[in-house]
Amino acid sequence: MLSSITCTAPVNIATIKYWGKRDEKLILPLNSSLSGTLHQDDLKTTTTAVASENFTEDAIWLNGKKEDINTTRYQNVLRMIRSRATKLMDKKHFVHICSINNFPTAAGLASSASGYACLVYVLAQLYGVSGDISAIARIGSGSACRSVYGGFVKWEMGAESDGSDSIAVQVAPETHWPEMNIIVLVVNDKKKETSSTDGMQRSAATSPMMKERCATIVPQRMRDIEAAIQARDFQTFGDITMKDSDDFHEVCATTDPAIYYLNDTSRYIMNLVHKYNKMSGKIKCAYTFDAGPNACIYLPEENVVEALALFTKHFPGSDLSTYYRGSDKSNIEKIEHYQ
Ligand code: DP6
């Protein structure tokens, strides 16, 4: 018997950054975080998983290249899925997985988020796992737990040592703020030098900013941004988003040895956004940068044309600006099932 499922999962863009773990094995964070999940038609991972009695081992291909499936993360995910399986419980069923991103992998565009969210979702479908799967996605890659849901999603850091309450929760569905858009400015699509996993471990151990960030700054920002999302208050949302991005990169800069993810083009974009907002007398768009130089710009629909014109003018002739519509239809999706 052969059973196959294909699913897609979108990328999420954090407005309050996850940076630092209190448990490396279970991937439990030092702070809660919050993100917006992109539209399914934009940045996404498509994954097919096939189970068969004829396979002699588990195997995974990422963007056409065979990867080692015996990593701790893949094995933890497979073990957790199989322990909750209601289908294919016969141990003879091995699984073959093919995963494709429609965007640069590991260039600070949250590929691990959509990748592990999709992997866990597809395996959960295949093995008949029900209930919350965000905690399984989390043990693949922390930020992946937020891609399990659409709209605005928070990852509650939780307090339990077994990670049972460190899960993703939808703050508002994709229909709540449909005017919200995201423009992704691809500054560099090369693989980053310092992975998020290594970078956050070093920051947690050495940056003097981490303690206050986790104890007071992030908890307050989480409360404020959640309220701003509920009220569709873009001024507060944009202000907090840019401040948290700035602080995150300051944490990286104060890590020993320092980590720099931004480059001159990133900083040019930051200045441009600040000037544009100042000139307009209000926040028209808000930048945020993950562990890479690429900019993600949150903005309401009414400002998209003007902002795109601005970015195109400053970066003429390049394909720097790519436009991704935000909110609706951003849930993870099952697109094919063959049994
Ligand atoms: C800067 O989720 O990739 O994008 O849990 O070690 O796999 P691991 O890290 P990862 O880190 C993402 C960090 C970030 C911020 C965020 O998405 O919240």
UniProtKB/TrEMBL annotation:
> Does the record bear ATP-binding in its keywords?
yes
GO CC annotations, alphabetized: cytosol
- Per the UniProt entry, the Enzyme Commission number(s) are 4.1.1.33
GO terms for molecular function, please?
Answer: ATP binding; diphosphomevalonate decarboxylase activity
EC primary class: lyase
Residues forming the Diphosphomevalonate decarboxylase-like N-terminal domain are 9-168
Keywords carried by this UniProt record: ATP-binding, Cholesterol biosynthesis, Cholesterol metabolism, Lipid biosynthesis, Lipid metabolism, Lyase, Nucleotide-binding, Steroid biosynthesis, Steroid metabolism, Sterol biosynthesis, Sterol metabolism
Q: Which residues cross the membrane?
A: none
Q: Which GO terms describe its biological process?
A: cholesterol biosynthetic process; isopentenyl diphosphate biosynthetic process, mevalonate pathway
Q: What pathway or pathways are given for this protein in its record?
A: Steroid biosynthesis; cholesterol biosynthesis
Q: Which reaction does it catalyse?
A: (R)-5-diphosphomevalonate + ATP = isopentenyl diphosphate + ADP + phosphate + CO2
Which residues belong to any copy of the Mvd1 C-terminal domain?
Answer: 182-339
Record has Lipid biosynthesis as a keyword: yes
Q: Name the domain of life this protein comes from.
A: Eukaryota
> Which family is this protein grouped under?
Belongs to the diphosphomevalonate decarboxylase family.
Biological function: Catalyzes the ATP dependent decarboxylation of (R)-5-diphosphomevalonate to form isopentenyl diphosphate (IPP). Functions in the mevalonate (MVA) pathway leading to isopentenyl diphosphate (IPP), a key precursor for the biosynthesis of isoprenoids and sterol synthesis.
Protein name as annotated: Diphosphomevalonate decarboxylase
